[in-house]
Amino acid sequence: MAKDTLSITDNRTGKSYELPVEHGTIRALDLRQIKTGPDDFGLMTYDPGLTNTASCKSTVTMVDGDNGILRYRGYPIEQLAERGTFLETAYLLVHGELPTQSELEEWQYNIVHHTFIHENVKKFMDGFRYDAHPMGVFVSTIAALSTFYREAKQIHDAECRKHQIHRLIAKAPTLAAFAYRHMSGMPYAYPDNDLSYTGNFLSMMFKTTEAKYEPNPALERALDVLFILHADHEQNCSTNAMRAVGSSAVDPYSAMAAAAAALYGPLHGGANEMVLTMLREIGSVKNIPAHIERVKNKEVRLMGFGHRVYKNYDPRAQIVKEVAETVFEVTGRNPLIDIALELERIALEDEYFLSHKLYPNVDFYSGIIYEAMKIPIPMYPVLFAIGRTPGWLAQWQESLEDPDLRIVRPRQIYLGEGERQYVPIDQR
Ligand code: ACO
Fold first, then answer.
1. pTM
2. According to CATH, what is the number of the domain 65-266+379-397?
3. Whose CA is nearest to atom 27 of ligand 1?
């Protein structure tokens, strides 16, 4: 009869063990009993990059990478992107259910009424060099918020947590836009709480002398959809950072700064920036075959392609491609889209990409939209961070409520020197 267990025979000792299997996993600690003798520490798994390790149980987001499926709290990403708003999606991620009308109004009120930042934040923003990368500024200023809200350390108080969640979702666009204004030498534009979440962000980015900035509704909606698409993606690098740093019981501002720092890298949220740089370098459709050859020779990676989990088309990439067309109706066609489409067409027919299961990911097309909207390239990872904020917070909150939570502290395989004696410098 089938049993939910795994039998292991240790050929080093001839001993057999039976380990429980739950949710398709064994508990790594159950391996510790497998020893060659009393001095043996016990068996561990070796998993660099955590490619086959479930680090937590979660109910937030489901990704089925083989079939190209993404759901937040059970809702398909396609439906949320078509019919939902970003703040509604943020509520869903954080609370687990879609809000009723009154819950949504209260949530929006709470977010809108936390968009301002302390005036001192502006002062240290001014201290960054004139051309500081806005993602570096974003990471630093998110961390700095912990010095303003010291009660945020009470991470086990659900009410207190809720307050910090409102603040972080509300202030992320303000810090992001202020970082851009600093980089471009423009005066900071304060939040306009009459506008939508995304409309207010566009206002803080682009408002100049007009008394009231009026965002283009199509661009406002496009950005809202992009934020929805980026809102969560289960245990990716930055979410893992959020959970790992949060496991030390630090405040959410410090944990989210770590998550944002993880996002900054070109293999993660920095990829959208790299895609644009790559498309500009390619410059013309006629140069694509030569670029594909360089990728296949492993001289460069095709940025915006490939994913640890998706071994099929990333469903977000398809939606972003559609959003691009709605944006181009307002801004005019970004010529880089033709290079991107041709690159995708060739890559999807090429044996190298097919055999490696490399498909466009969410960031392959997002930068082209941002560029058409006149958002400068260094802001792309920052936009990703705004969108990902509710996901990080939902996952952080879930981790704190998890009875299995322990400080994240992996093991290592030590392969260094055995004990040796200190040698004075004149004798080395
Ligand atoms: N271009 C060319 N080859 C690639 C690419 C790519 N973009 N991605 C992976 N490969 C190849 C690797 O060379 C390797 O080939 P090999 O087996 O012949 O040696 C194989 O595919 C597996 O690659 P890994 O790096 O082991 O895959 P991993 O799952 O560790 O990496 C990652 C995933 C980091 C996303 C990778 O695909 C990549 O670097 N992509 C480009 C950067 C990018 O777009 N990142 C954004 C990811 S989405 C996001 O964070 C929102």
1. 0.93
2. 1.10.580.10
3. 308
